[in-house]
């Protein structure tokens, strides 16, 4: 009986020992499972960091795009500023003309300091006209209304005729000066004489004929103009360094120094077309525009 009890006790202890060992193995398996899960978590974390890095790169790209936009805005602002230049005003004005006449206009203008050029335009199939104005601030082409006449720096026009003969008749050139009695320098002599209260001084330069009409009584002369001889020499000196357009066939400059209708008209023939520039400012202002004349598209 004692042997049986001892055997039962040994068997029971063996069973307990096996159970304990089995528990330890399960614990080891759990720990191994935990270790195998940890790398997966780290991998997920690394992926998130990669996305963050990508986000930062995209953010950097966005900043670059923002800089490009600012650069474009600055470029536009510069273009807007440049659009007020005389060159761009003339381009805009000529673009408003609907005519078959070849477009001619000045490139230089007698603008006062800190003043802006603008223009009002008119045209039809066979003619066009630009009224050139100076303003204290930028004014778009064809929007100047109720302006002071003193703001007009000049008028430029072109007209097409059916033939060059008709164009010549419209120009109505004065006779060429063949004999001169007044030395203007640079090898040029003018004819001067008076009639009915007028003093005329006229001379030729190439195909151009130039004439000054002044009152014999100085009290009727515009104060902005000197007497004939001085004014004639001033014109000759200017044209020594500035070239008028070559007319085909004739060109004429008429200067009036009368107080009630002062001004300079410059007109010339170009085949079937006649072009004119008129300015009530001093004669050099008109010559500045005429000697800078150029074709426009």
Automatic annotation (TrEMBL):
Cleavable signal peptide: 1-24
- Chain spans, region Disordered: 20-87
Q: Where is the composition biased (Polar residues)?
A: 39-48, 56-78
Which key words are in the record? Signal
Q: Does the keyword DNA repair apply?
A: no
Q: Which domain of life is it from?
A: Bacteria
PROSITE patterns registered for this protein in UniProt: PROKAR_LIPOPROTEIN
Name by which UniProt lists this protein: Lipoprotein
The root-end lineage is:
Bacteria, Bacillati, Bacillota, Bacilli, Bacillales
Q: Where is the composition biased (Basic and acidic residues)?
A: 25-38
């Amino acid at each position: 009986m004692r042997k049986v009890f001892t055997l039962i006790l040994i068997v029971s202890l063996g069973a307990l020992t096996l159970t304990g060992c089995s528990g330890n193995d399960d614990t080891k398996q759990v720990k191994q499972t935990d270790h195998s899960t940890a790398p997966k978590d780290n991998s997920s974390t690394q992926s998130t960091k990669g996305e963050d890095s990508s986000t930062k790169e995209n953010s950097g790209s966005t900043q670059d795009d923002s800089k490009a936009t600012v650069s474009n805005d600055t470029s536009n602002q510069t273009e807007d500023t440049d659009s007020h230049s005389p060159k761009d005003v003339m381009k805009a004005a000529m673009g408003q003309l609907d005519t078959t006449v070849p477009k001619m206009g000045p490139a230089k203008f007698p603008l006062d300091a800190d003043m802006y050029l603008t223009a009002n335009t008119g045209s039809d199939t066979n003619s066009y006209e630009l009224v050139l104005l100076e303003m204290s601030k930028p004014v778009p082409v064809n929007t100047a209304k109720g302006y002071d006449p003193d703001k007009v720096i000049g008028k430029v026009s072109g007209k097409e005729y059916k033939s060059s003969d008709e164009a010549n008749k419209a120009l109505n050139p004065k006779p060429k000066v063949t004999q001169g009695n007044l030395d203007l320098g640079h090898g040029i002599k003018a004819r001067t004489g008076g009639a009915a209260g007028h003093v005329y001084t006229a001379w030729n330069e190439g195909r151009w004929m130039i004439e000054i009409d002044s009152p014999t009584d100085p009290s009727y002369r515009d104060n902005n103009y000197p007497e004939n001889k001085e004014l004639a020499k001033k014109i000759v000196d200017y044209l020594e360094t500035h070239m008028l357009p070559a007319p085909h066939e004739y060109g004429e400059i008429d200067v009036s120094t009368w107080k009630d209708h002062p001004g300079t008209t410059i007109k010339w023939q170009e085949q079937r077309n006649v072009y004119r520039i008129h300015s009530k400012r001093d004669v050099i202002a008109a010559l500045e525009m005429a000697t800078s004349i150029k074709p426009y598209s």
